[in-house]
């Protein structure tokens, strides 16, 4: 396992700037990448964070209070309006699946990944 990438906890890779976003997407090497926009001050987002922590693969974590520029960049690249919490599955710059708020469940993300392998 390569420990030189961004700090991780529970599979989360914090995306604090556009460079870390680009690196995270590039490291997926054509596989679907998961990005989770999280609000540190939202109860719904806290429940979504718990769901996302159940996934056994890297999840790019954008904490919107600390990385608003990354959040704006994702909105700009995808054309999908910003929400928090919000999950994207992206491959080669294309959004394969997205969900927000109460739709964010570990099983739903896993099912979407299976459909988009």
Features:
117 residues, single chain, Glutaredoxin, alpha/beta, 6-stranded mixed beta sheet
Structure description:
With 117 residues, this protein is an alpha/beta fold. The chain has a single domain, classed as Glutaredoxin (3-Layer(aba) Sandwich), CATH 3.40.30. 35% of the residues lie in helices and 25% in strands. The protein contains 4 helices and 6 strands, in the order ββαβαβαββα. The chain has helices at 18-27, 43-52, 68-78, 106-115; strands spanning 8-9, 12-14, 33-38, 59-63, 86-91, 94-100. Strands 1-2-4-3-5-6 form a 6-stranded mixed beta sheet, sandwiched between helices. Helix 2 links the parallel strand 3 (33-38) and strand 4 (59-63). The radius of gyration is 13 Å and the shape is globular. The two termini are 22 Å apart.
